[in-house]
Amino acid sequence: MWKSYDSVTCGDFQFVFKPSSDMPTIQKIFLRIYLPLAFLLLLPEMQDRVRPNLRGLIWSECEGYYIYLPGVFILKDVHKIQPGSMWPMKNDQGEMVLIYTCGVAIFEAPLFFVARAYAAINTWDADDYFREPYCWSVAYTGYIVCFLGLFFLRKALLRQHSEWTVFCTLAAVYAGTNLFHYGTKELGMSHVYSFFLFSFLVWHTPRFFEKPTWRNAALIGGTLGWMVLVRPTNAVGALFVLLYDVYTIAAFKARIQWLWSHWKQLSVAAATAFLFFIPQMMYWHEMTGHWAYYSCGEFSFKYWNKPKIAAVLFDSQNGLFLYSPMALVMVAGIFMGWRQKKHQALSIALIFASSTYLFASWWAWWFGGAFGHRSYVELYALLALPLAGVFDKILALRNKWLQSAILLVLAFLIFYSVRLSYLYHIIGQPWDGPEWRWSLTKMQWIWSHLF
């Protein structure tokens, strides 16, 4: 539904928006169709980016997510799964045990079956589960899910912001961060799926508190359960629900009382969340004899007492702010929202801080060969809320020269992030390993090719 804003008062500021009834028709049409238009325009670009190395869509960690499907539906025996390009973890019988959970495989299942049927119709070996149709199924699944995340994020932001603010925010989130890279190139990774689930959570959480029906409880529980199944560190998303619209101790106490009074709905949410773990628990029990199993083995949070926080945020080896400087604007929005008690600043600040600590405590704090710090991709759905608050202020500036200058700087940050995504593969990826640093020579090469 089209939203109309005359003005919004925030503290000492009043943001004046042009009513939608006065907006030119061409602008109305654009603001209604830019997401599906972007989907169609970027589809060939995604295809061009992944085509040179289709097998890379199901390689290493991506293979670990995907292999559940052929293991169950083609091999029909998870004991027969071979290490392939994955880290070879073994059980006591010497059999391959997947260190990755099956949350991504649930997303990939529909198009996996389409690819299997397509291969059979074309008389290809449908049991060769690394052939092109299966690789393309992973690419299209990730691409569609990424845009579904943007769709729900747009719906969530429109509750509080104008259409133009939402447009600028989505453009900055998608193209100004490494979400663009993982949404058009490395589509077999888990991050676009987590991004979708966080976006859905941002959209659905206020609906749950406004109407705590069993259906809404099941949806929020299922979302949280699926998030954790995709990536266990996504459990921090529960803080967003717990602290939604909470900024004071009194409000927190009221939230606890509200949750206690709705214990039946919470029970439904917990039960729905647990349903997502049943397939994973069955796999663990089949392979190890245990219903719950720490599959990462020797990999752990070994820096828990000396977290590499500065490196995670600023290091040349995938530091968040170096590869996605738009995240600095998002963090600035958190501080602005905190003062104003808006934009879920408290919950997002806690999630950002706790997530950063977790990432900085992991044995590979840079998270392997990646473009930027990939573990923050899912959190952009939350950081979009304070970012929208920043765009509210920018679009309300009366000094049009200042407004244009700020928007040009942000447009450059978008260009920088997208261009760096392409240079990442030209230089020779992955940018990984202790010997890799942005030396003066490499920095000169990057900047000479930036434009």
How would you describe what is shown here?
By secondary structure, the chain is mainly alpha-helical. The protein has one domain. Helix content is 62%, strand content 2%. It contains 20 helices and two strands. It has helices spanning 25-50, 61-66, 68-73, 103-121, 132-157, 163-175, 179-184, 191-210, 214-230, 237-242, 249-261, 263-275, 278-288, 309-314, 320-323, 326-340, 345-361, 380-395, 400-427, 440-449; strands at 7-10, 13-16. It has a two-stranded antiparallel sheet with strand order 1-2. A hairpin with a 2-residue loop joins strand 1 (7-10) and strand 2. The chain is globular, with a radius of gyration of 23 Å.
What fraction of residues sit in β-strands? under 5%
Which range best describes the helical content: under 10%, 10-25%, 25-40%, 40-55%, 55-70% or over 70%? 55-70%
Average residue-wise pLDDT = 90
SS-derived structural category: mainly alpha
Q: Rounded to an integer, what's the Rg over CA atoms?
A: 23 Å
One letter per element, helices H and strands E, the order comes to EEHHHHHHHHHHHHHHHHHHHH
Could you give the order of strands across the largest sheet? 1-2
Number of helices: 20
